[in-house]
Amino acid sequence: MLIIDPRSPVPPYEQLRQQLVAQMNSGELAPGTRLPAVRRLASDLGLAPNTVARTYRELEAAGFVHTAGRNGTVVALPNDGPDTVQQASTLADTYVRAMRGLGIGPEAMVSYVRRSLAELAPG
């Protein structure tokens, strides 16, 4: 379920992007899954279509999705190539900017990452 908090200091397109990436990373959105059409998702979330379109463009630029013409926007297959480093760097940059926007300092950022790693570690 996608939820946009209009009171958050994180812009709506970034909230949506973060949630979609999290769903892709968790496997909830598997490779090959078609994302909702821009207008439909915008309507469902109470956002402007341009906001959702921006999110999809950023996801595509980072290699998380690809546009398949009339088939819409589809979750991409995992990438083991050189783009992986670029994607990881982009995600790290996005994380740091979002956390700074929340007023969270570097030590706390690392603490959140460690907590997530511990919670998501296979076991």
From TrEMBL:
Residues 10-78 form the HTH gntR-type domain. Keywords: DNA-binding, Transcription, Transcription regulation. It comes from the Bacteria. SUPFAM superfamilies: Winged helix' DNA-binding domain (SSF46785). CDD domains: WHTH_GntR. The keyword Iron-sulfur does not apply. Pfam families: GntR. This is GntR family transcriptional regulator. It comes from Ammonicoccus fulvus.
